[in-house]
Amino acid sequence: MARYGAQFGPDITFMGVDACDWADAGSYSDADVVILGAPFDGGTSHRPGTRFGPQYIRQTDYNPPDGSRPSLAMRVDALRDLRVYDAGDVEMFSGDAERSVRDLQTAVHAVASTGAIPLILGGDHTVAWPDAAGVAQHVGAGRVSMIHFDAHADTGDVEHGSLVGHGQPMRRLIESGAVRGDRFLQIGLRGYWPPPEILSWMARQRMRSYEMTEIGARGLDECLTEASGIAMDECDGVFLSVDIDVCDPGHAPGTGTPEPGGLTARQLLDSVRRIAYELPVLGVDVVEVSPPYDHAEITSYLANRVVLEALTGIARRRKDARDGTTWDPRQPLLDGR
Amino acid sequence: MARYGAQFGPDITFMGVDACDWADAGSYSDADVVILGAPFDGGTSHRPGTRFGPQYIRQTDYNPPDGSRPSLAMRVDALRDLRVYDAGDVEMFSGDAERSVRDLQTAVHAVASTGAIPLILGGDHTVAWPDAAGVAQHVGAGRVSMIHFDAHADTGDVEHGSLVGHGQPMRRLIESGAVRGDRFLQIGLRGYWPPPEILSWMARQRMRSYEMTEIGARGLDECLTEASGIAMDECDGVFLSVDIDVCDPGHAPGTGTPEPGGLTARQLLDSVRRIAYELPVLGVDVVEVSPPYDHAEITSYLANRVVLEALTGIARRRKDARDGTTWDPRQPLLDGR
Amino acid sequence: MARYGAQFGPDITFMGVDACDWADAGSYSDADVVILGAPFDGGTSHRPGTRFGPQYIRQTDYNPPDGSRPSLAMRVDALRDLRVYDAGDVEMFSGDAERSVRDLQTAVHAVASTGAIPLILGGDHTVAWPDAAGVAQHVGAGRVSMIHFDAHADTGDVEHGSLVGHGQPMRRLIESGAVRGDRFLQIGLRGYWPPPEILSWMARQRMRSYEMTEIGARGLDECLTEASGIAMDECDGVFLSVDIDVCDPGHAPGTGTPEPGGLTARQLLDSVRRIAYELPVLGVDVVEVSPPYDHAEITSYLANRVVLEALTGIARRRKDARDGTTWDPRQPLLDGR
Amino acid sequence: MARYGAQFGPDITFMGVDACDWADAGSYSDADVVILGAPFDGGTSHRPGTRFGPQYIRQTDYNPPDGSRPSLAMRVDALRDLRVYDAGDVEMFSGDAERSVRDLQTAVHAVASTGAIPLILGGDHTVAWPDAAGVAQHVGAGRVSMIHFDAHADTGDVEHGSLVGHGQPMRRLIESGAVRGDRFLQIGLRGYWPPPEILSWMARQRMRSYEMTEIGARGLDECLTEASGIAMDECDGVFLSVDIDVCDPGHAPGTGTPEPGGLTARQLLDSVRRIAYELPVLGVDVVEVSPPYDHAEITSYLANRVVLEALTGIARRRKDARDGTTWDPRQPLLDGR
Amino acid sequence: MARYGAQFGPDITFMGVDACDWADAGSYSDADVVILGAPFDGGTSHRPGTRFGPQYIRQTDYNPPDGSRPSLAMRVDALRDLRVYDAGDVEMFSGDAERSVRDLQTAVHAVASTGAIPLILGGDHTVAWPDAAGVAQHVGAGRVSMIHFDAHADTGDVEHGSLVGHGQPMRRLIESGAVRGDRFLQIGLRGYWPPPEILSWMARQRMRSYEMTEIGARGLDECLTEASGIAMDECDGVFLSVDIDVCDPGHAPGTGTPEPGGLTARQLLDSVRRIAYELPVLGVDVVEVSPPYDHAEITSYLANRVVLEALTGIARRRKDARDGTTWDPRQPLLDGR
Amino acid sequence: MARYGAQFGPDITFMGVDACDWADAGSYSDADVVILGAPFDGGTSHRPGTRFGPQYIRQTDYNPPDGSRPSLAMRVDALRDLRVYDAGDVEMFSGDAERSVRDLQTAVHAVASTGAIPLILGGDHTVAWPDAAGVAQHVGAGRVSMIHFDAHADTGDVEHGSLVGHGQPMRRLIESGAVRGDRFLQIGLRGYWPPPEILSWMARQRMRSYEMTEIGARGLDECLTEASGIAMDECDGVFLSVDIDVCDPGHAPGTGTPEPGGLTARQLLDSVRRIAYELPVLGVDVVEVSPPYDHAEITSYLANRVVLEALTGIARRRKDARDGTTWDPRQPLLDGR
């Protein structure tokens, strides 16, 4: 099967990494990470536009697309130290959510089956269902935990007559057994949704959701430490799902359902890096970037950096495992250079 | 069945006309025109956002929403001289195009069955299929001709694996027999789509498509006169479908697939008014207004005025029929006031 | 007297709560809170646009306008647990500031007289004069203290030849005796206004103003605790006036006189919630939201949430008083659901 | 009396012409034209922002502010061939429309009294009342006719409880006798305002209003010729009032009450130039430019050019009178250079 | 020498045509047209941003980048009927205008030497000097005439101490003898630049410049016919240089020095197509597209279509020469399909 | 030599301070600070637009340009307590970086030679080379240390074939000996540039660069204290160079190379104020403000305040030295007024 390329715009790869075809495992046999675009916004309940997320996240940077991004902070070059491929987009017709999620799961599972980490660029959060399910299909139901950054719980049931949508993926994942409810960690929730009956369902699943008030009172670091502990209990690794709206709209205006009072960009980048460094990551998605609502591409920039920080954490984790070293966030930039 | 109201935002009506419930014919038994919102953008091939079209077209004005719009040019007040209701939106989940068009057609047909003119606010152009089909379902297959303002022919076949989408409604209408190919008039086409094989299909259907080059060479008025003649041959009336991208992007930037070189806003308003005045209109839709890509709401303003000019033409046509008068575009504004 | 409705756009209510007519007390006899729109920007010294504040604050949300907003953090649904009405706008002609403030005060006083809490959606900050004066007219001069979030002191005297304007309401309130100078708490001031002579006047009134430098050095929580203590000394309750420009322009660009270096959105929401929870609130206004200068509606979203957090705090305060419970910000979201 | 300068921003002059003080006739004793800024938007019924019109119209250009603008088309340099001064702004508090118009009229009259042509930069259209009245105060009631480019008639009576506002100046001018109703020429009207009763009032005043439909049917040139004839019958000269919304929103998005279907920028510039060349102009205003709603400053650019074309027409008219020459629009640019 | 690719963003080609390396003639030996990007804005006198022109003109479309663009109007597919390559960008450091234009001319000349038509995507208009000079270097000094669409004459001498800049290329071309002054045709000039002394210089060169007033008075078609006649007198072909600001800012806001009163997009597209069809084109450039000042990419869309219309005209011209056919603009779209 | 004034727009001064001519020392003989505009963006590697930085930084405020800015926090009025002049812009042609930096250095040196502090408004960061070199030229090579707020190290070598550009000034300063590498303090670095070989070069120079991770781990205050200590070791004073992109893009979107995860506006303002208060400042620049990418002017507002806080710190430092007082950030605003 031929590489589909890009559903919108030219066939480019994330920051210039090598292209591959997800359906041809031979085209990425040495991959550590395979990027997939999920240009789908048919599941959003409000502002659309995330179909252009993959194109913008791949392309938005002032540095050249040269397949190299040496991290100042972690002293690895994720795009070189890891073997990262970009498989292009999965064709996803926004007018057919059911078929789209089915096709995406096939692709994610194909990638995961090779042992590579699938990293999906959304699209709206609908895609988290096939993303994490595709990983679980490979590692086994309930063997992957979820760390989920978001302003919203995304645990709705039927909405607009459909089981598929950007407010429901987390429920589908738990109901299907792909991810255990008691290994489901949510960071950054706030606002006025979901209503009590859905919260009750969540409580019954024994999910652990950190609302911003608790995060403010206890500190983000402490919450992350606690969440990491839960995530690794009886699981092989984590799926990291980052909804860009976990950040405050001031830092991420280009999104569909902005909820004031969120994390700063700095907090999100630090958190993503830390999780990817400390825990074995089995899959990642970065979703809900809506370029038509963005300004000066700041939300696309942020999402691009979320991807890079996840990759950087993974790369440094592997390097430290290999070299027996440890990362020290307090080390001055130029020490030992 | 209860009125659904608005899928996005508060339950308002077009410029303050009375509300009704399309499923309850008694709620609009005296209607001349019933407005329906079709907040769907799951069928668009490029920029989404038209789901917010109904909300913006209903609301965008500097005049108050008082259910009155006396036309300076035509000396009728369409919202008062006609009995216009707004039935709110049909719920359309953008992630399920097939169900959405089915549900919309049900609503349009229900309205048409009462003898009222359905006027649909899109949404992307996918909705033209259920819009005109719903009318044909009432007046009989092939009894309604189509006058279609657009930069694009919208006669594609399968796209992204689907028969439903904003590039294909006109093919579906002809294939289904709802509208005769040789009573299908297209105004304003231009650019580089569709490819020759689709043009051949169109030619075989004996469609009549006025590309901008012909319009420029012959004059818009002459083309409209010719088109009107064809439209009324063996048909009971016309369905008027206005894709806002028939206008140049300078006049209508807020749309999904802008094609430079289109009509001016003035030309479109004059054309819509003229058709609605000269021909018996059986249905109308105004589509492809994408507020996230708009600036200073100028595209929403234009679409609002397209609706008003269509209603104004209908109102004046009925008045003239009643009073035996004729409209004179050269008459000074204040003459005979 | 008939409800005026909306000065701009359709007659909608805040998030779908019930409508009432402020001039007809019977229409809201069971009200806990009555919302009033004050669509006035004739008093602004720089960028206008706040006249559209009421329309945007009422309407901007991705959740449906269903009259329900269950707070994740506080476990109350302010729009249901309280009886909240929206009285529509007071007609305010921006070209006549004096008449406008007089008419607004009449409406605020009418609401306050029924025992309901008036919550006013500005409009520029000019409206704080009639807002707090209308409350004081009911509870008695000097019986209501003021907690005022703002980048600016708004204690100017005559400007552009007028005593009325958005830089002067706080002076008017103190001079008139409506609010005691020594019960006037200001949070978030910064920048280069007002000049020393006005600061001297403020000092003579024994106002207590927390500039951002002091807040940074001492911590916002400590400042709020101190301010709350002052506010409740010999007063029956507080008027909470929130100028959205207390937040940094990054979080609230859509305002008339943005001053860099402000609070984060998170800080403002937490502070508003806390005050509404801890102190007896007698009136609220949320002002200076200028939609033409906003991007992706993030400032309107923030203001909408400021209103909701104020209501949520009030609702939880009443619930705790009723049930003998206490709110714990550290409680995990799903505990006890 | 000292020059007030600019109400907003630095004290600059239109394209760098010399500054003067309107209250000190000696500071512009040799003036042909004196520019006045009227930074007032308290009278607008919808979107504000025109208070920044004077600042933007004065400043928006890519050519340097060097007090020179040689017209390619008319072969005069209006800023040099005429003696043009800029008197800065009249202080106008938007919250006090009555005082503001009174103060503006004083300034306009002062300028007109010296024999100079006052050219006012709005501001919303409220200012046309004091603008033309100030001229009539000098030349005599009924001695100045009005040529008024606008989408709207601006002949409303009381609105929002006020006689002063941007929808009413033309009524005030006629009622006060400053301008004769039968010497009132309106070009470019369209849409759905005013209602029939106001149109009747207009007809009774024997105004002559060219709606866009008549302009389209007869041609703009023919309408202008006819209008010019009426304007000069028993009058000494014309006041030229240009509301930028006479242009289509595609050409002038930055305005308060955009009405689709207007003139092109080219048509407006040609018309203004022609009137200023063919008729004795006694005063000019250019109004309703709202920078917050503009994009890439295209509306400010257009308004700047409207001012320049008016000045250019005046300059060429005087030159031809002096030299006995005639302007030929068909002459190639480089002929005779 | 290796292909440089793109100076900004990923290495893509215009609408997906094949890539080549201008320095390796073998990589495009069968080329009819070779596209070159000139991402330079160091020569602009006002708003920069045109460095992103090549990236946006290549990429902006809703049709896929599939190397095919069948023209509805002309019934050729320029990207398939011609052999079109895209050589990527010439590296141009905006901070070094002299080196940049030298390097660009080398590339243009290299392409022209192979017999292919160079088509350059600007960049600011500075690039017209190396563009046309590179062609003249191949066909001989004075053997290529210039048809120049622009609001500005671009015939300045020294500006900001430099001979190189976007206001001066036409002077350099004439002074150097590359293009004859009396074979220099300018369409669309307007406004207030250049001053009389430069116009005198232009007149002495016997340039022929059509200002918008002459175009309005005589008609664009007649002017183009006259210009075409001059262009082909004693010359081998034409260089077509299109500054997007020849269009009105309403149609092309995304540019550096917008001048109100320009052509419509429709007029420009028709003119470019006509010239490319009627005359032997030896080179083309499309310049002054500044994406940061654009809205909804409408200016990039327009520039993309200008390129396509030029290619389409060339393709149809060659086809007609081959087949002995003639293009009829009045032919209905579906006739003979 | 005559004052050049403004390269773009009218000749205004920063907030209305007095004008001077840098080439005429007599015009500012009593100056404490002289402001220079450096309207140059020819050195930027990505988004341009900073040429308009000086114009916007000078002009953007809601307070009047009255030459007075009394700081609430520091109780000095920097524009009055210091003698501040604005020398206008140095003419800098963006297409000739080498000449431009040479000319700027001449101006900066001229100012520094008089003993006044030069404060330069960029422009892109290219200007830091001539800015600090011009100061060092006066105080002696190596006698001025550098405190550099930036997301980027700006220590590149040759880029695009040039030694001059916005990514390289810091290298040029160290290589030339103007500033000692071991007295070069960088605050706020982050992201993926520069690559290891440049970091090695930096380490060899013994630069001290605080990446955001270290700042997050240790706290900004501690890092600043440490940096200040280094800066004053064997140096006479500091040059303070503030690249606005040190702030997070949410706070400063209007810049050329935004890097997510930066400082808040509050942090930057506090830091600048503190450094200017605690250390002897010999020169300042504020760079990389790109108005075309800004929204609602929030980045220009921030840069304006950075300038004011630097001036305010300087003024208070001098006052305290004079009066023997000390600034207490915890002092309530109204204490002792």
**Which CATH first-tier class of chain A would you pick?**
Alpha Beta
Helix content of chain A: 25-40%
Sheet with most strands of chain A? 9 strands, parallel
Number of strands of chain A: 9
CATH topology name of chain A, in short, is Arginase, Chain A
Largest interface in this structure:
A-C, 42 and 34 residues
- Number of separate helices of chain A: 10
Beta content of chain A: 5-15%
In the predicted model, the low-confidence regions of chain A spanning at least 5 consecutive residues are none
List the defining traits of the structure above.
337 residues; Arginase, Chain A; 10 helices
What does this structure look like?
By secondary structure, the first copy, chain A, is an alpha/beta fold. Chain A has one domain (14-323): 3-Layer(aba) Sandwich (Arginase, Chain A). In chain A, 34% of the residues lie in helices and 15% in strands. Chain A has ten helices and nine strands. Chain A has helices at 53-59, 78-81, 97-113, 128-139, 169-175, 196-204, 212-218, 220-231, 265-278, 298-323; strands at residues 18-19, 33-38, 84-89, 117-122, 144-149, 184-189, 208-211, 237-243, 281-287. Chain A has a nine-stranded parallel sheet with strand order 1-3-2-4-9-8-5-6-7, sandwiched between helices. The termini of chain A are far apart. The mean pLDDT of chain A is 97. The A-C interface holds A 45-47, 189-193, 195-196, 199-200, 202-203, 207-214, 216-218, 248-251, 253-254, 256-262, 264, 293-295 and C 62-63, 68-73, 248, 250-252, 264-266, 269-270, 295-298, 301-302, 305, 308, 329-337.
